[in-house]
Amino acid sequence: MARIVGGVTTSHIPAIGNAMTEGLENTPYWKRFFDGYEPVKRWLEDVKPDIALVVYNDHGLNFFLNNIPTFAIGCADRYDNADEGWGLKTLASFEGDAQFSWHIAESLVEQHFDIATCQEMLVDHGFVIPMALMWRHLPKWPVKVIPFAVNTVQHPIPTARRCYQLGKALRKAIDSYPEDLKVVIFGTGGMSHQLQGERAGLINVDYDLKTMESVISDPEWLARQTTSEIIENAGTEGVEIIMWLVMRGALDDQVKVVHKHYHTPISNTGAGVLVLQNAA
After folding, report:
1. Category of 168 on φ-ψ map: left (φ > 0), alpha (ψ -120 to 50) or beta
2. What is the pLDDT of residue 247?
3. The whole model's pTM is what?
4. Which helix (H) or strand (E) holds 208?
């Protein structure tokens, strides 16, 4: 049977991609941020997942304001990277697993999640930067991928509770797949940040740190918050934190913290990293 080996949370800020392209990892501004990913890379090398299911939000590359699905899963054997306007270097294509993706999609529908299925899908920085943070040091991507897009752009967006429930449904879907595969789930986005309006530049360190502890030991604290409450505390773009709950819902109620790191600011954003394993 397929099984989840753990979950990882990470920011996916475009500036990270430019820093990697320009080789700025050891400069004073970036060093502490990138140092926080070294334990993650070592953990991934130890567990050697076969599949990375990456929960992210599309930034206009596939879906625009006139047509955004609440949830969408890639059901292809290949995903190409394209620049959605940040001038980021285009990275090598990613190998998918269409058969596994279709199994997940069918299982989610059976569990009453109506999900869009994409047989062609471009992946933007929301997906690519987390992948590069984990595996850019290798000559090729070591895992197959399943892109899983969550709408955090056009309101109404899914609630934190719904994202947490989605994670539980994903767990059931993955556990029921007959092939022996090791799956890691990335919950990406956030943390607190706002890019426009009177509160542009907002970073709420206290809320970020409390959110990280919630994701570890009390996901209900975050799951019961309304979209308005999350935006009030974390900013309009900080609402991406609901995607962390998708990852968390896919794990056991009790988890082991393999690694935890928080750094701010990075491009006017709070940046948090977690590696979680099931406690059993």
Report:
1. alpha
2. 98
3. 0.97
4. helix 205-217
pLDDT category of residue 182 using cuts at 50, 70 and 90: very high
CA distances from 8 to 109, 196, 220, 264 (A): 25, 28, 18, 19
Tokens found for residue 239 = 């609402």
How many CA atoms are closer than 13 Å to the CA of 104, on its beta-carbon side? 33
Catalytic residues: 125, 193
Q: Could you give the CA distance from residue 220 to residue 22 in angstroms, rounded to a whole number?
A: 40
Question: Domain with 82 in it: what CATH number?
Answer: 3.40.830.10
Domain range for 213 is: 3-278
Tokens of 33: 């941020």
Q: Helix or strand or coil: residue 69? A: coil
pLDDT of residue 11: 94
* Cα angle: 265, vertex 266, 270; to 5 degrees: 60
Instruction: Report strand pairing: 51-56 vs 144-150.
Output: parallel
pLDDT digits (tens, 9 = 90+) for 200-225: 999 999 999 999 999 999 999 999 99
Q: Which amino acid is at 159?
A: T
Domains identified in the chain, total number = 1
Rounded CA-CA distance 241/98 in Å is 27
